[in-house]
Amino acid sequence: MPDQLTIGLLGGTGPQGRGLALRFGLAGHRVLLGSRDPGRAAGIVAELVGDRGLAIEGVGNPDAAAGADLVFLVFPFVGQAEVLPDLAGPIGDKVVVDVVNPLGWDDQGPYLLEVPEGSAAEQAAALLPRARVVAAFHHAAPRLLADPERQVETDVLVAGDDPAARGLVLELADQIPGCRGVDAGPLRMARHLEGFTAVIVGINRRHKIHAGLRISRLGDDKRRRLNAELRPARGSGGLKERSAGGVRGTPEGCPGESSARGASPPENRDREEGP
Amino acid sequence: MPDQLTIGLLGGTGPQGRGLALRFGLAGHRVLLGSRDPGRAAGIVAELVGDRGLAIEGVGNPDAAAGADLVFLVFPFVGQAEVLPDLAGPIGDKVVVDVVNPLGWDDQGPYLLEVPEGSAAEQAAALLPRARVVAAFHHAAPRLLADPERQVETDVLVAGDDPAARGLVLELADQIPGCRGVDAGPLRMARHLEGFTAVIVGINRRHKIHAGLRISRLGDDKRRRLNAELRPARGSGGLKERSAGGVRGTPEGCPGESSARGASPPENRDREEGP
Q: Which runs of consecutive H residues, i.e. helices, occur in chain A?
């Protein structure tokens, strides 16, 4: 795995796509910001990059998919099912990171849309049967991503069925200052990550903030060690770490204690409930 | 609103019920820990209280429901629909806090069970049509609740359709050292709180910790001010604050900035996407 990846952002002209493009460019990656309209993508990139000298290019979605090592889906939810079938060819068996939050809004505030596949990410997996789909970056506030002077204060929960793909995306998350990649398990967890965005959007609206979330009691040493185990052995030693100084640690967990709680697996319930 | 409430914990003999009983007892409330078997409840309370001199009693579920000012549901999910219809009478129009996480477990780990009403809390609301149901405390680790020497490091997200009921439960959450009550909006958000427990249980299992979650960038001054606005005016000035020293603050949000992100309501989308 080289230190520099080429990252394609499909549907990347919205706030989330622009923010991720900027952060991945600052982390030293080459970014292909894709749009249905390559001219619009080029204009947005010119504005985004300014005189920063970052390797970000605005291109059409198919070129972003074909030219990338891994691909982010940052469409609005309604666009995903329309656009993906035509991109399945150039995407092939790449790692695909679905950032899409299928949210609606009514007089009670934000709510999660019904997705027959269970989540936007599982819909993408159904439309891209060869790709290794993971769900991640739902809770990274676009306003914070867009401002390189600010920390993006959130844990990036990464769900997917391919451990090496999860490991790669966890490593990418750690490269954004203030973000911590946290393994959230199989792809079926995506619905809960997407659903929790509705909670955060409601909290943002109520409190006028750009919130994220932190998993408490998750120590960084253990987190990094377990995340690294997901990646196949690499000559380069992994992606370059750029965010360590910016991440506020939380105290280490409690080594030796049992991990399950609440919904322990049945065979552990008696032990968990103890005296 | 008196400083001391009588809190009924229905199905309170499990780890979550025992932990909440202990913490509410330590906060100065009177607790009725209910079980189908009053003798079992009394035995568990004797062990839990020891020589602490806390006002916790073990009783039958109907007595806990009838004698309480507000009621917690801490059943296993399968028990809730069986037991609640018989308790609707004594519960009446009280505030009901549903802590139930409808989780299953298979070879991929924890997963959320299908609940026709949308969530365990909405099921409770359907079975208790007069009660003011809120969903809360899903992410407070029983192992931490059970140990008064430790902080329960989590934000307690509170969802419900009755603002005064939400406000009361937010205030209760603030009384447990390490917990912060955060308004999570209407009751339909309960499904996302319950679903996120599956994510946390998986993280616990993987990392061998007792995790919770924190909403980042949510400043305590703003949080407390908005929470207090949910409560009707009271002579006593609200429940006594006991946890302030134990809560680690997060930096204040960004006053004056727009709050929405990701799924902005349609009328704000253009403004939100602006350069």
A: 15-26, 38-49, 61-67, 77-91, 120-127, 142-145, 163-174, 190-207, 220-229, 269-273
DSSP H or E run through A155: strand A154-160
The answer to whether A82 faces chain B, any CB pair under 8 Å, is: no
Q: What's the whole-number mean pLDDT along residues B206-214?
A: 97
Residues of chain A with pLDDT under 50: 1, 235-237, 242-275
Q: Choose from A157, A170, A192 for mutation: most chain B CBs within 10 A.
A: A192
Chain-chain contact of B15 with A207 (C-beta, under 8 angstroms): no
Rounded to two decimals, the pTM is: 0.87
- Measure the CA–CA gap between A172 and A168, rounded to whole angstroms: 6
CA end-to-end span of chain B, whole Å?
49
Q: Tell me: the pLDDT tens digits for B121-172?
A: 999 999 999 999 999 999 999 999 999 999 999 999 999 999 999 999 999 9
Assign B35 to helix, strand or coil.
strand
Alpha-carbon radius of gyration of chain A = 19
- Contact between A212 and B217 using a beta-carbon 8 Å cutoff: yes
